[in-house]
Design goal:
The protein is an alpha/beta fold. It has a domain at 4-156 and 184-212 and 281-293: NAD(P)-binding Rossmann-like Domain (Rossmann fold, 3-Layer(aba) Sandwich). It has 11 helices and 13 strands. It has helices spanning 13-24, 56-63, 81-100, 123-138, 161-168, 187-199, 220-231, 242-259, 267-274, 284-288, 297-309; strands spanning 4-8, 28-33, 47-50, 68-71, 107-111, 144-148, 151-153, 171-174, 181-182, 184-186, 206-209, 236-239, 277-278. The protein has a 7-stranded parallel sheet with strand order 3-2-1-4-5-6-11, with helices on both faces. The chain starts with a strand and ends with a helix. The protein binds NADP nicotinamide-adenine-dinucleotide phosphate (NAP). NADP nicotinamide-adenine-dinucleotide phosphate (NAP) binds at residues 8-9, 11-15, 32, 34, 52-54, 72-76, 87, 91, 111, 113, 128, 149, 151-152.
Length: 310
């Protein structure tokens, strides 16, 4: 094995963290990038392939001769089912088809999501499940693994950061259900898990949930308690009324469709936030490739906030 990897999503939150980790560990990375020029803030990839998941020729250049494919690209925001499906389902199908057609078929890792467990909840969740099904369908001859992380946070994240920043200032803005439970994972730990997968692949066709090791996950009160401890002072909880959130999310979705941007806060996202159980079910990932998460929630919040203070 010459330690060569094809990576998609390298310009995103998780993919860029992974790219740095692979680079530091001596992997030769070939990365797909949609922009014409390599983003300056990223470490030099061995090779940048310009193109998208909709471009089979670029995908063929990306995967040719590599040992493994790590598929991190995905749509996490969108204004329609079609937008999510095009990237998260059709994109997987396109990439795995090209990978499976190689003379030496590379191993394939799909970064899915815990959301795939609840495909009826939102177009995002459905598209992540459809991506997993596409991998199963087109990757018959491929040694594949699906990773289903829960909410991932850390430097570079844009989704949880506003909530963490408000908590650091003493205010917890409650947008989900107070009794809902969820797992979390610090982004560097996810990157480490993927490197373990490269070094020590589990049996083919495995679907693994992975979290930070906190059995039973967290509720929002747990996160607020950690933030208060870090702050050394109380964090006040402020609940946005559900009806107000519904109105804002619906207006945001309408505006996104009108103006053509990809919205995060939508009625579907609220459905995901209000779901009662986003807790990872077992420690299969830890058993599968002898990986251990290292970063606790307190350390992870501190590292995340520090990285944004510069
Ligand atoms: N963040 C989380 O909490 C979380 C949790 C569980 C699972 N996941 C999964 O992890 C993956 C990465 O998430 P993220 O948070 O890092 O998202 P992100 O920051 O939005 O990054 C998405 C990446 O995908 C690329 N991409 C999107 N559409 C593409 C297309 N059509 N062709 C080629 N590249 C495309 C983007 O490229 P550009 O830079 O060109 O836009 C970017 O590099 C997603 O599949 C997501 O479902 C994320």
């Amino acid at each position: 094995m010459d330690r060569s990897v094809a990576l998609t999503g390298a310009t995103g939150f998780i993919g860029s963290t992974l790219l740095r980790r692979l680079h530091a560990d001596g992997w030769r990375v070939r990365a797909l990038v949609r922009a014409r020029r390599q983003p300056r803030s990223l470490p030099p990839a061995a090779q940048w392939i310009t193109g998208s998941l909709e471009d089979p020729a670029a995908l063929a250049r990306l995967v040719s001769g590599v040992d493994a494919v790590i598929h991190c690209a995905g749509a996490v925001r969108g204004a329609s089912s079609a937008q999510f499906e095009r990237v998260n389902a059709a994109g997987v199908a396109a990439l795995v088809r090209v990978a499976a057609a190689q003379e030496r078929v590379p191993r394939f890792l799909l970064l899915s999501s815990l959301a795939a467990r609840e495909p009826t909840l939102s177009p995002y969740a459905a598209s992540k499940r459809h991506g997993e099904q596409a991998l199963d369908r087109h990757g018959e001859t491929t040694h594949w693994t699906v990773l289903r992380p829960p909410a991932v946070y850390g430097p570079g994240d844009r989704e949880l950061l506003p909530l963490l920043r408000w908590m650091a200032r003493g205010w917890a803005v409650m947008v989900g259900d107070r009794s809902a439970r969820f797992s979390l994972l610090y982004v560097e730990d996810l990157a480490a898990a993927i490197v373990h997968w490269l070094e020590q692949p589990p049996p083919a066709g495995t679907v693994l949930e992975l979290d930070d090791g906190r059995a039973g996950g967290y509720c929002w009160a747990d996160v607020v308690a950690v933030a208060a401890r870090l702050r050394g002072r109380r964090v006040r909880q402020f609940t946005v009324p559900a009806a107000a959130l519904d109105l804002i999310a619906a207006a945001n979705l309408r505006a996104a469709r009108l103006l053509g941007y990809a919205p995060m806060l939508t009625p579907w996202k609220l459905g995901e936030l209000r779901h009662a159980d986003w807790v990872c079910k077992d420690d299969a990932a830890r058993r599968a490739f002898a990986w251990r998460p290292r970063v606790s929630l307190a350390d992870g919040i501190e590292l995340t906030l520090r990285s944004f203070r510069g």
